[in-house]
Design goal:
Elements lengths: L4 E3 H8 L12 E5 L6 H17 L4 E3 L7 H10 L4 E5 L1 H6 L1 E6 L5 E5 L3 H24 L3 E3 L3 H11 L2 E6 L7 H7 L1 E7 L24 E7 L2
Parallel strand pairs: 2-3, 2-4, 7-8
Antiparallel strand pairs: 1-9, 4-5, 5-6, 8-10, 9-10
Helix pairs in contact: 6-7
The structure holds zinc ion (ZN).
Zinc ion binds next to loops.
Length: about 220
């Protein structure tokens, strides 16, 4: 199942929409690691990487704070739920590379600097698949179905976990769930694996009653 689903951010990115605030502050953080004699080149390189990602519409933070060591920064971003980290030190600059680290399991991969946008998007796919796999294991059956707003709120309120509902794809339809309960859409299955992504299924959005285009997974945000 994990392979066939992707998280909310990624689906929205592919659909060209903005992901809702509050799921994670950034999708990727760039952490330059320098000594005094390498500071300028490392920072310049890191800024270039962050700019490329930002230009592509990826929510990126360049963490160039002085006075915080890299380990501190890594911890902080992990606690904040940033799914992907890019580490850049003098070696990466010298070799024209980047080190990418996945939040869920700490896997670290060295990639070329060139083509960073496509590379980061590929890594998002992997990271969200890992996050989803973890959630599936943890929840183990805690996914329930609902087909209208009251049902979504009632089911989340009573059981927590995940609630699936047909969704039109419009983020405005997340608001009536978000406001009363601080719940939100946390996942959308891969298009190929979502029966509601196909035509003529006859299902309508649980919130607005327009045609449903995707299955949305709602969960309380913590
Ligand atoms: Zn809707």
């Amino acid at each position: 199942v994990a392979r066939t689903r992707r998280a909310h951010h990624d689906s929205l990115r592919r659909a060209g929409a903005r992901a809702p605030a509050g799921v994670a502050p950034e999708q990727v953080v760039v952490v330059p690691i320098w000594q005094e004699d390498t500071k300028d080149e490392v920072l310049e390189y890191a800024e270039g990487v962050a700019d490329d990602l930002d230009d592509a519409g990826i929510r990126v933070e360049l963490d160039d704070r002085d006075g915080r060591n890299p380990g501190f920064k890594f911890n902080e971003h992990e606690l904040n739920g940033v799914p992907l980290r890019i580490e850049i030190g003098p070696h990466e600059v010298e070799d024209g590379e980047l080190t990418l680290v996945h939040r869920p399991d700490g896997e670290s991969v060295v990639e070329d600097r060139e083509g960073v946008v496509a590379t980061v998007q590929d890594h998002f796919d992997e990271v969200y698949a890992k996050l989803y796999a973890t959630a599936e294991e943890t929840l183990d059956g805690a996914v329930r179905e609902a087909d209208d707003r009251a049902d979504i709120l009632g089911t989340l309120g009573q059981h927590g976990g995940y609630v699936t509902a047909p969704w039109c794809g419009d983020e405005a339809c997340e608001e009536p769930i978000k406001e009363p309960m601080a719940a939100e859409i946390v996942m959308v299955p891969f298009e190929d694996d979502d029966p509601l992504a196909e035509a003529d299924h006859g299902e309508t959005c649980a919130i607005c009653d327009d045609d449903a285009e995707r299955t949305a997974y709602f969960a309380k945000s913590y």
